[in-house]
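Students often ask why we bother encoding 3D structure as a string. The short answer is that it lets us treat folding as translation between two languages. Here is a chain of 119 residues written in the first language.
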Amino acid sequence: MIDDELQVMNMAKPAFEFLYDEEIDLLRPVLHVDYERLNAEEQQEFEWGLQQISAQIPDRIQQFEQDYMNLYEKLKTTEDDESFFRINEEMNEVSKKISELNLLYLHIEGTHLHANVDD
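And here it is in the second language, the structure alphabet:
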């Protein structure tokens, strides 16, 4: 009986999904089973989703880098401590988002983003 209930619960849950991450404004892949357990169609659908996400990451990083530089320029002209620390905290948050995006790219592509940039 318990095995039947577990099997029904597992059938209701998708093998994978793409969940929205508000912090980085992108979908994140979530596998609920080992990749090898996906059938060929599911693997293809999952890989397509990964490529769609991966393609958005460089532009998203560029946006956050621009935000960071704008904050840096504001920081250079800040005269009071309260504003200085607030802007510094905002810069830390933007930096964290850039790091999250780089890790997501590495997880999807298996390589660092800069490794794909031509010099």
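Translate back mentally: Residues 59 and 102 are 12 Å apart (CA to CA). Keep this in mind for the problem set.
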